[in-house]
Each structure stands twice: as C-alpha cells, then as structure tokens.
Amino acid sequence: MLPEYGIEGVELEWTRSYFRNRRQVVSIGGQDSTELPIDYGVIQGGTLAAIFFLLFINKISNLSLNGKLYLFADDTAVLCEAESWTDLYSKANKDMNMIFQWLCGHSLSLNVQKTKYMVLSNSPSRRFLDEHHIGIHVCDNGMDNSCGCPRSKEYHTFDIWAYGSTRILSGISTFTRLHRD
What we know:
Elements: H1 9-19, E1 22-24, E2 27-28, E3 31-32, E4 36-38, H2 49-57, E5 68-72, E6 75-80, H3 85-105, E7 108-110, E8 116-121, H4 126-131, E9 134-135, E10 151-152, E11 155-159, E12 170-180
Parallel strand pairs: 8-11
Antiparallel strand pairs: 1-4, 2-3, 5-6, 6-12, 7-12, 8-12, 9-10
C-alpha cells in the first residue's frame, strides 16, 4: 500500500521496521500481563500514528456507496437522500453494511452501539424511525429486521422547511467512530 503513496526504498524499509516485532504488556494495579506480540494497528499516541491511520483508511472513499462519505480523522459520516422513507432506509442500511464489510476486510471495526443517525426532513416519520433502525448485518438474512444483528437505536430528527421548494428533503447521516483492533 505504501508504494502507492510514493514511499519506496529506504523510507519503505524504515516504515516496515516501525511495524515489525512489536510487543506489549498491560499493567493494571501493579500486575503485569504476559508480553504478547502486536500484529495489527499503529502505536497509539505516537507521532506517526495519525498519518499511518489516514493512509490506511483513505481507500474507504473508493467504495461505491448510495450516499456521500465524509471522513475526518477516525470519524466518518455518510449522507444519504431519497424520495421515500423506505428507499432512504434501504440506502442507508446498504451503505453501512458495505462500510462494515470494508472495515472488517482491513482489520478495523465499527462500534454499532456508538453509531448514531440523524434525520433531516420536512416530513419526519417518528413511527417509521422507531420501527426501522440502521443495522450491521453479519447474518445471512440480508436486510431482514427479524435477525439479531446489532442496530443503532439512537436517532435525532430535525425538521427542515425548504422555502419555495416542493422537493422532499430527506437524509440519514450516520456518524461513527472507527476503532483499530
């Protein structure tokens, strides 16, 4: 991946050495754990950690989503819009599941419990929102709501009155914090 960004030769070998043969110990209350190898991730708090994380996550923007993806450090927002609540729900769910699959394939995780969605509409439907939650499907049931897959149950609604416009403005924006495994 790094040669794609122009990191080659001595710089590439130096970068690889930064990630090789790392080990860690956890200390709690004066007790130390067994030393274990670290196979994934960047050193948190390190000067280079943020840069390497951004290089690593940058390709998520190549996904063919229904909505628009916004990235800021390890926060992500997806903005979807549609003409009906059913279409909006379908698009947002498909996008979140596509992002989830991409993250899993790159040794990253998404905390569904911390994922929130916000509805911007001139005709909010609280009943629809109460019955339909954005979910991350790890089952084989597709988008079936009867499965036990984790769901984001928290949403916020904002009424938007579009002056001089007859088009319904609807959107679900999902905000999540990405976690390094």
